[in-house]
Specification:
By secondary structure, this protein is of the alpha/beta class. It contains 17 helices and 14 strands. The protein has 2 domains: 177 residues, ATPase, nucleotide binding domain (Nucleotidyltransferase, domain 5), CATH 3.30.420.40; 185 residues, Nucleotidyltransferase, domain 5 (2-Layer Sandwich), CATH 3.30.420.40. It binds adenosine-5'-diphosphate.
């Protein structure tokens, strides 16, 4: 099956075409046929595509909306330029899998998109006003380009976390706010945490029930998840992706009273403070330099840049604090798993996070840690009682696999039954 995976943003459309089926999933032999993105949709858009052989092609085109961008991409996929002989026309694409950011309490698993499901995704707009509307546009554009009969599947960032128990997802606010507005912890990056947990299981040859790990997704956005018996039991992101770890430009945890204080002292609206916490804080905010961890590491070494060092210290301290908290919540864990751009590529940051966790039985193997850059494997000593692993994430692959699995099982919940009273 050739599955087109789409991630629709406000002015961008990322895609991958993946050949997969149940046999390939079992054998881990899915094949990425091409990938790329359209950016600055709405005017002269920039199209970047990578062919199967790895060649990168960059061009510009006047693409005014997501539908036109998708049409353009599908034409390219079916052309000789893409080097994909299996796809000669749109009908050679057999399904579309969409990343959908928020499934609220309605969607606890990936689902085939029906009109009713689409309504459910619309209902979750309040919870993710910046993301769900774009995801919906991607779904409607696919219907337009491929016709209504092509199966489409929604894979939610939130659904892996539906197993988090009430005592971990409830905020200590007046309870009616939860009932009225569904204010609670939902968690995000679920596709990444789930993919990494699946790979860990395969690497260690353990069952789902035996999977007790803490996964750290450290990219531009960062989150930690406590996984017990293969299920998410707590996660650092909350109602929105702002809570928890220090991120590229997001603050993570702060005292909520600070919002009002900043608003008053700086003469900002709460909306503006929200933007400040999302876009001007985190690594960028502390360092005053950049949200790019590579640059911060370089500057802290070469220039002895004090605030770059400080940003890195706060980042690593917060991650270690969450690991400690999750170990306490879980009772025990077998491994910490690093993923995301920073987690996969920075031995330095991994070491700084793990140093100080010897009490928990974690002993990092320095040479394994240094070697493991963009690779998959163990970085702890063999006799550690708490291990550490690096597992590169692949959210698109999981979306393609879920698309196949959903279509074959025609899994689509009856939204009316799921709706919260
Ligand atoms: P996104 O969350 O946008 O998908 P990524 O997962 O690609 O982002 O992660 C981006 C982050 O990874 C950036 O802070 C970048 O500096 C960092 N990163 C990438 N490679 C390295 C590296 N070799 N060392 C340290 N940080 C790295």
């Amino acid at each position: 099956m050739n599955v087109l995976v789409l991630n629709s943003g406000s002015s961008s459309l990322k895609f991958q075409l993946i050949a997969t089926d149940l046999g390939r999933i079992t054998e881990n032999k899915d094949e990425r046929l091409c990938r790329g993105q359209v950016e600055q949709i709405g005017g002269e858009a920039i199209v970047t595509v990578h062919t199967r052989s790895g060649t990168r092609q960059k061009s510009t085109a006047s693409l005014f909306d997501i539908s036109r961008s998708l049409e353009y991409l599908v034409r390219w996929i079916a052309s000789d330029e893409s080097e994909i002989m299996e796809v000669r026309s749109p009908s050679d694409i057999h399904a579309v899998g969409h990343r959908v950011v928020h499934g609220g309490e309605l969607f606890t698993e990936s689902t085939v998109i029906t009109d009713e499901v689409l309504k459910g995704i619309e209902e979750c707009i309040d919870l993710a006003p910046l993301h769900n509307p774009n995801n919906i546009k991607g779904i409607l554009a696919s219907r337009q380009v491929f016709g209504p009969k092509l199966p489409q599947v929604a894979v939610f960032d939130t659904s892996f976390h539906h197993s988090i128990p009430e005592h971990a997802y409830l905020y200590a606010l007046p309870y009616h706010l939860y009932k009225r507005h569904h204010i609670r912890r939902y968690g995000f990056h679920g596709t990444s945490h789930r993919y990494v947990a699946d790979r860990y299981r395969a690497l260690r040859a353990v069952t789902e029930e035996q999977t007790h790990i803490i996964t750290l997704h450290l990219g531009n956005g960062c989150s930690a998840t406590a996984i017990r018996g293969g299920r998410s039991v707590d996660t650092s992101m909350g109602m929105t992706p702002l809570e928890g770890l220090v991120m590229g430009t997001r603050s993570g945890d702060i005292d909520p009273a600070v919002v009002n204080l900043i608003a008053r002292k700086e003469g900002l609206s709460t909306h503006e403070v929200d933007a400040l916490l999302n876009n001007q804080s985190g690594l960028l905010g502390i360092s005053g330099l950049t949200n790019d961890m590579r640059v911060l590491l370089q500057e802290s070494r070469d220039q002895d840049h004090r605030r770059a060092q400080l940003a890195i210290e706060v980042f690593c301290y917060r991650a270690r604090k969450y690991i400690g908290a999750f170990l306490a919540c879980m009772g025990a864990a077998d491994a910490i798993v690093f993923t995301g751009g920073i987690g996969e590529n920075s031995p330095d940051i991994r070491a700084r996070i793990c140093n100080g966790l010897e009490w928990a039985g974690l002993r990092l193997d320095d040479s394994r840690n240094k070697r493991m850059v963009g690779l998959e494997g163990q970085i702890s000593c063999d006799d550690s009682s708490l291990h550490a692993f690096v597992i590169p994430t692949d959210e698109e692959l999981l979306i393609a696999r879920d698309t196949v699995r959903c279509i074959l099982s025609e899994r689509s919940p009856r939204v009316e039954e799921l709706r919260i009273q």
